[in-house]
Structures are given as C-alpha cells and as structure tokens.
Target: UDP-N-acetylmuramoylalanine--D-glutamate ligase
Amino acid sequence: MKSVNTYQGKQVLILGLAKSGLAAAQLVKQLGAKVVVNDQKPYEENVAAQELEKTGIEVVCGHHPLELLDKADVIVKNPGIPYSNVLLQEALKRNIPILTEVELAYEISEAPFIGITGSNGKTTTTTLIYKMLEEDQKQPLIAGNIGTVACEVAQKATKDNVIVTELSSFQLMGIEKFRPKISLLLNLFDAHLDYHGTKEEYIKAKANLFNNQTSEDFAVINADDELVMKASADVKATKVPFSVTAQTTEGAYIKNETIFFKDEEVMSLKDVVLPGKHNQENILAAVSVVKLYGCSNEAIYRVLTTFAGVKHRVQYVTTINKRKFYNDSKATNMLATKVALSAFSQPTILLAGGLDRGNEFDDLKEEFKNVKAVITFGETAPKIERVAKEAGIQIVKRVDNVKQAVSEAYACSDEEDVILLSPACASWDQFKTFEERGDIFIESVHKLK
Model:
C-alpha cells in the first residue's frame, strides 16, 4: 500500500463500527492517527469495541456525545449512519470533514479502481466484471458492498491489481479525492429517500462517482436511462454509453441477437445463461467496462456461458410439487421487484414487505399481470396490500414474517406456479441484512419438503 501522511498525528473520530468502522479504525491507527471510536451499541455488548480498546484505541459506546468533536480533525463514518445524526449535524456546522472508508481505501491503494453504482443490478454487474477480468488474468480484487471492506482490500493491492468496487450512495457521499479509472452508473430510481430526503439528493450522491474523473478516465453510462444521462451530463471522463434498445456504437449494444462493443462482435446473446431480459442491461454494462480494460472476448464468453446469477438476486431455490421457488431478497426497492416480476410469465405468488421508508408502491401495479396472490409482512404490509387489492388480485394475505409467508404461499399455490420472495423493501425492520432475510426464506422453503 502507499505510504501516506494524511492522518499522521491527526485526531480521527470513527463513527459507527460494523465491518467498515472496524477496518477504518485499524487502518488510520496504522497511519499514525490518534483514534477514537464512537458506537451506539453499549460497551458490554460490543465485542468489536472491546477488541479495539485492547489495541490502545479509545472507545465511547452507548451514545454520541458532542464533546467528541472538540478534538476531531476528521470523521470517518459508517455509511449507514445518516447525516441527520445530531453529532454529524454539529460536525457539518464546524466544517469537520466527514468521510467513508472508501476514501481511505483510495488514498492508500496502489491499484486503480473500477467503481460501480446504481439503484439496481450493482451486485450482479460487479460480479460479472470481476469474473471476466479474473478469467482474463487481469488480477482483479473485489471490494465494497459485495465483499471485503475496500480499505482492507486496498492494503494488499499492488499496481498490478485492479479493485472492482460496488458502491452505495451512502458511501459516495463521503468521498473527496476518490477517482475511479472506470466509473459505471447503471440506473437511477427512487431509493433510500428516508436517508437522502429527496430524489435529487440521492441522484447527486450517486453522481459523486464522477466528480474527480478527468479526460483520461472512462464513465460507462446507461443511455436508456434519462436520469443517468442527466446526472452524467457534465462528466469530464470519456463517456461510454451502453443500450439495450439502441445501437450505441460508442459502447455495448445488441444487434441481431448478438452482443457488440463498438463495432466489434463479442458473442451471441443466445449463449448467455444468465436469466431474464433485465440482466441484458447488466451484461452490456459489464462488457463495456471490461472491454475498456482490455479483456478478451474469449474470457467474456466463458463467463457469460457459465454464470447463472448471484445469491439473493432472482436466485432459483428449488422445485416442490411442480412449484418453483425464487429468492430475490436483494430487491430492496420497487424497481428491483418490478424487474423480478417481469422475468416470469407463469402465475406468480409474490412475497413482499419490509422497512417503511415513506414511499407508496403504486408503481408495482403494471407488473402485477401474472401475480395471482400477494403475501405481505413487515412495516409496509398495509401499503402493499392496498396496491394489490386495487390491481384486482383476489388473494391478499398478511403474515408476521418470512417463515409464515412461505407456508401461506405454498398453501394457496398450484402446480406450475412461481413463488417469489421479492420484498420491494429494505430488511431492517425485522432482519439485520437482506442476506439474513433470504437465508431464512431458503431454509423455510426446504423445510416444506
């Protein structure tokens, strides 16, 4: 890793632990900072804080005292902590820089970054890019939301590597210098409005990905998404658009059931095993990125003829008595659920609900044509029920949790039905993560056997 003196002798406040806070605290201490960690979880229950304290790091748990700001030169915050937090509001008034650990990762990394963001499809696309580069022996490392914390990965990266990084709007709000060699903005949709306040602020956070790029860098953008095109209007990087609907000869597109990059034929679309038309967008985005990085068509072909998808993203689970079960727990907003529903022409039983972020679910109606039943749970159950009933769905039932939803869905299903968990909501009202929600769904499905 690079030797940097940015934090030497500085007072760094780490706000929030979890994986990113823990990694950030350890890194800035190594870089010579005086570190204080502040976490809401009580000290007696906070194993990570106790371990850090043993290394000489000061920990303050259970509350966020404003006095911590008196000596803070910089704050590195957990991405999930909103800027409405009282301590952060006061820090902003005092002009104390507030970063996320991705910024630390960039500062110390010898390797260039590929930064991937968007409202939906990030994990699938990040995985595709990583696998294609790996297949072509480009020595990629994977980081961010999808894998290991970025500042951990950056410590072991060399100039021969490239760090493929999935980035959330939360992370992108906390960058100052972060500059990916290749940036990718997949799509934009109303999401995380409880965190950002407005759609405009959410889009602004996503567009931070482009802020520090120059004409020597590349910005891969979705030409089919008006909001993406608007958000990238003033980008200084070389724009590389991709499109499912048009022949964008500056990037990736589909022509005669064949994937092209610029004027080069890459492979036949019929050989791709990743299911669903919605994944064509992810594929074209990935192809654009890896071709810019010099990836061979042979490596792309080998990945796209074998990669069938990632866990929790329209993941086939099993078939029981001719009912097919799919886990799409990563669908934490309406667009993701609409995309999942559009992948099926069979009668579908939808399991949905979760954290209430203040939005309604009327946009789901247009994809309810094949939905025969809706089973709801969580804080948003009443809102989803209203939309389902207005759409004319006859079977609408509310249960307490995902386990009950699986049993209820099976009870009202028939042979050849699809039973789909695609919540359209974040999981935090009942679960720690969407992965936990998906794993409980899978476990409950297998118990039906």
